[in-house]
Design brief:
Structural class: mainly alpha
Largest sheet: none
Length: about 190
């Protein structure tokens, strides 16, 4: 367990801390690292993705877009009635489209992290990817006239994105990633 935990830590926190030390995740970390290098090879782009113009990480800000669209879509599905269906579907699609900036800024922050951060981050990314696939399936089901199945897919995806969000919180608060110097143009990932 990490320095932040105790035997009385809540079970989700204990599970997140176990991910920090799960060296079985290292092959996935290495694959994501290799895939991220070309994205971050250009210094100006890397600074932008890490939030240098903002003075802090851009990723947390950009995650509000897909989450806001998706939760609004699900809310309309549950309480909006038939008149809200078109709006719910548009919000769902906008959430899917807005994942790209959230993803690339998250990868830029992740690349600067310690191995423990990278391990938790790769699971966080996998869960977010699974949620995006779930929301994409929901959108396709709706387009093909299977609204009830589409709504159920969105509800399942909300659960997955919630787990991903918990790990995002663990990264930000327990692991303090990205560090305040992550937007520093002089800081480069350990290679």
């Amino acid at each position: 367990m990490s320095q932040h935990s105790s035997p009385r830590s809540p079970l989700p926190a204990q599970l997140a801390e176990q991910l920090e030390n799960a060296d079985t995740l290292d092959p996935a970390v290495e694959r994501l690292d290799a895939a991220s290098r070309p994205l971050l090879a250009h210094e100006g782009l890397a600074r932008l993705l890490r939030g240098r113009p903002l003075g802090h990480a851009a990723h947390p800000l950009l995650t509000d877009l897909p989450l806001g669209f998706w939760f609004s879509s699900v809310t309309l599905d549950l309480v909006g009635g038939k008149d809200a269906r078109a709006a719910a579907d548009r919000l769902l699609g906008l959430g899917i489209l807005s994942t790209t900036p959230a993803t690339v800024t998250g990868i830029a922050d992740w690349a600067l992290g310690s191995q423990q951060v990278r391990r938790v981050g790769v699971v966080h990314a996998a869960l977010n990817s699974a949620a995006t696939v779930g929301f994409g399936a929901s959108w396709l089901l709706r387009r093909r006239g299977h609204r009830a199945a589409g709504v159920l897919a969105s509800l399942a995806a909300v659960g997955v994105v919630g787990a991903a969000g918990f790990l995002g919180g663990h990264l930000a608060f327990a692991q303090q990633s990205p560090t305040p110097d992550a937007a520093d143009p002089e800081r480069t990932p350990d290679m």
